[in-house]
Amino acid sequence: MVFESLAEKLQNTLGKLKGKGKLTEKDVKEAMREVKLALLEADVNFRVVKNFVNKVKERSIGHEVMESLTPGQQVVKIVNEELTSLMGKEESKINFADNPPTVIMLCGLQGAGKTTLSGKLGNLLKKKGKKPLLVACDIYRPAAIKQLQVVGGQVDIPVFSMGDKQNPVNIAKAALEHGKKNGNDVIIVDTAGRLHIDEGLMDELGNIKNEINPNEILLVVDAMTGQDAVSVAESFNEKLDIDGVVLTKLDGDARGGAALSIRAVTGKPLKFVGMGEKLEDLEPFHPDRMASRILGMGDVLSLIEKAQANIDQKKAMELQNKLRNQDFTFDDFLDQLEQMKNMGPLSQILEMVPGMNSKQLKNLNVDDKELVKIEAIIKSMTKNERNDPSIIDGSRRKRIAKGSGTNIQSVNRLLKQFKETRKMMKQFSGMEKAMKKRGRMN
Ligand code: GDP
């Protein structure tokens, strides 16, 4: 699970909101205090947290949310949207050159995962039909060249190197010539890192950049280093004007600070995330999916949107009142069925529910035909029968079964369910009244 501790805290806090039928401003403020703490503990940049929480608060306390039927869920939706926009709204792709080769320069501190990324990125692009070339420009770290050659060998991608006696600027320049001659359409340049940022490193990277004029400068940072990763990104961006960031080691126990702050602080997008040591473990970065993952939401957002688009809020309110007052009729029931049908097949709706796996779905054995049957039965009733099912005697049941193309058993079952639902609502409203009375007495 990515950012486990952050995810757990956010889900806990928002879970409490979701459970409430009505929200007060105080509820939202309290929840936002908890969200703020969770983000700070995850090492998210202080200014970013402040901005984020203010935005969510401002939007959540608005009219639309507080007065909606599902205020808690609306707040969750807002948190999700703001988390997504913090990380960049949509996927940012590599800038490919109009005239190949596309030159991608990787930079970053030592140990961030540049050499590994050369292999991962090469592998990913190769699978998409590109012909990459890896270039060994790290002449300082012992065995760096050898490591790139091993990585290249694993994914069967050629590696250009000139040993460790040449200037990296010359190596990069020669690699470009070599690539062009050999039909490589993507050239991935692995540069040297240092333990800390220093002038010498930055100057060298600046010189390589000027010489090869890359289409894409990707900064590689280690997600485990949190805020440090963010300041590293700021320094590299100032000097090199990078195009994007790759966050590695997201499979470890990174707290989330880097992922959530980098875009806001540097203005540069996250483009990929490293999810493991293997060369297949690279994923394009999708801000929306990352936000959903952090909030443990499955695809509940689409579900909420679907419901918003298909369920008439005014009607839903009326229905709630009818249920309370027990004047819920078969016509209302029919209305409900119509609205549910608009949302799509039941199995598809259930698939969007977080935690619902395919096995559970199979066990549930959902069958849309049942709904069609129920609809047919109700439609075979007269207006009077729909309003007052108690008049439906034996001969009426027979007529309804025949008219709907079902059988007496099905009609009986539906009538029984309807009666039970009404009885349940009566009990509920009795309980509600009793509780209100007790509340007033206290
Ligand atoms: P460089 O100095 O920037 O070239 O870093 P390396 O590519 O040598 O990576 C440093 C270490 O991090 C190596 O042990 C890699 O296997 C490891 N590493 C790189 N990316 C990831 C990742 O996404 N997840 C994990 N768990 N380890 C990674």
From TrEMBL:
Annotated residues for binding of GTP: 108-115, 190-194, 248-251
Predominant cellular place of this UniProt entry's protein: cytoplasm
GO MF annotations in UniProt: 7S RNA binding; GTP binding; GTPase activity
GO CC entries: signal recognition particle
Pfam families xrefs: SRP54 (PF00448), SRP54_N (PF02881), SRP_SPB (PF02978)
Catalytic activity: GTP + H2O = GDP + phosphate + H(+)
UniProt-listed Enzyme Commission number(s): 3.6.5.4
Domain of life: Bacteria
Compartment list: Cytoplasm
The keyword Thylakoid belongs to this UniProt entry's keyword annotation: no
The SRP54-type proteins GTP-binding domain, residue ranges: 269-282
Keywords: Cytoplasm, GTP-binding, Hydrolase, Nucleotide-binding, Ribonucleoprotein, RNA-binding, Signal recognition particle
Example of a GO biological process term: SRP-dependent cotranslational protein targeting to membrane
Stated family: Belongs to the GTP-binding SRP family. SRP54 subfamily.
Alphabetized NCBIfam families for the sequence: ffh
Subunit structure: Part of the signal recognition particle protein translocation system, which is composed of SRP and FtsY.
Function: Involved in targeting and insertion of nascent membrane proteins into the cytoplasmic membrane. Binds to the hydrophobic signal sequence of the ribosome-nascent chain (RNC) as it emerges from the ribosomes. The SRP-RNC complex is then targeted to the cytoplasmic membrane where it interacts with the SRP receptor FtsY.
Protein's recorded name: Signal recognition particle protein
